[in-house]
Amino acid sequence: MRLVIIGGGILGTAHAWAAIARGHEVVHLEREREARGATVRNFGLVWVSGRSAGELELTLRSRELWEEIGGRVAGVGFRPAGSITLVRTPAELAVAEAATAGPTAADRGFTLLEPEQVLAHNPALRGKYLAGLHCSADAAVESRQALPALRAHMAASGRYTFHESTEARSVTDTGAGAVVLDDQGRRHEADLVVHCPGAAHSGLTRELAGVLPVRRVRLQMMQTEPLGEALTTAIADGDSFRYYPGFAGPQVDSLAREQSQTATAAEHKMQLLCVQRLHGGLTIGDTHEYTEPFAFDVDEAPYDHLTEVTEELLGRKLPRVVRRWAGVYSQSVDPDAIVTRVRADTNVWVVTGPGGRGMTLGPALGEQTADEIGL
Predict the structure, then answer these.
(1) Which tens digits make up the pLDDT trace of 300-349?
(2) Domain 83-136+214-332 listed as CATH 3.30.9.10
(3) CA atoms of 294 and 262, how far apart (whole Å)
(4) CATH of domain 1-80+142-212+339-374
(5) Which of 76, 239, 280, 335 could cross-link 146 (Cys pair, CB 3.0–4.6 Å)?
(6) Which of 9, 133, 10, 18 is nearest to 82 (CA)?
(7) The whole model's pTM is what?
(8) Where in the chain are the domains?
(9) How confident is the model over 52-72, as pLDDT tens digits?
């Protein structure tokens, strides 16, 4: 079959990867020179630890696919580093203890570590904490270099063409297939069209599928200079328990009632996530904002909070911050929906809304869609 995939972010690229893997031909359109949305404005984490029980199987499958991809495409920077969530209060410790006793603990690779065990796993963590929840299943990829590496690998098949700086203007279902017209005046005929618009919910997306049950979420993050030592796992703080359904339960309810978050963390719905890039710098975040219109500028208070928490856990000053940014991702409003898929016409699909799970779940969602549409 011949597919046209619109959208060069992680979802569009994952769908292209699934189609190429099954022997099909793909023409891939991206309106920018490179994807500039949530795909590159994330941590690159393949985050198994916090996923709900209902999506754990899909998450583990995606993690397996990322490892397979990483073995074939070195440029994606896959590494099975795991993570440690560092807890600093008794209420957070109770959540970690419940997680290690839960029915999915073995699948996630959960182990509760004493401070000296944390230090043995990750010698850079010389700060203050009560314990660490280790998740051996978590992993990381290099979000800024993964997609170009995947595209180069697919292009070598002879069945993949990428058109950068190309916006799809119209999609017409012909019954036997579909036709896409782009802003370069080109006509792309296909058996199937898959539109992966990311957080672009208007324009062509609305023309094809109407108003979708999705919302946009804004976050703030930052990047430091090289740390000068290895941060051997990703790290999180106990506030992250509040935002991941995999930890839901009475212990998290108690944590919410405790109101132990700082005023800044509560206002911006913050958690600490931190991962070391291959160049040695740290990617640190993040915040959550749900009410539009979003500000065009970034707020400095969350960065102060993130710096303070990270330095407390590391027991040292952070390297100089060299980049700050905001990003917006698409999230399905149904908390039980992993992604929103709409069959806009006989041969046209729209796929969006994985929330902050796009990098984690991308390969599995591409595979899942391929199964659903009969590739």
Answers:
(1) 999 999 999 999 999 999 999 999 999 999 999 998 899 999 999 999 99
(2) yes
(3) 23
(4) 3.50.50.60
(5) 76
(6) 133
(7) 0.96
(8) 1-80+142-212+339-374, 83-136+214-332
(9) 999 999 999 999 999 999 999
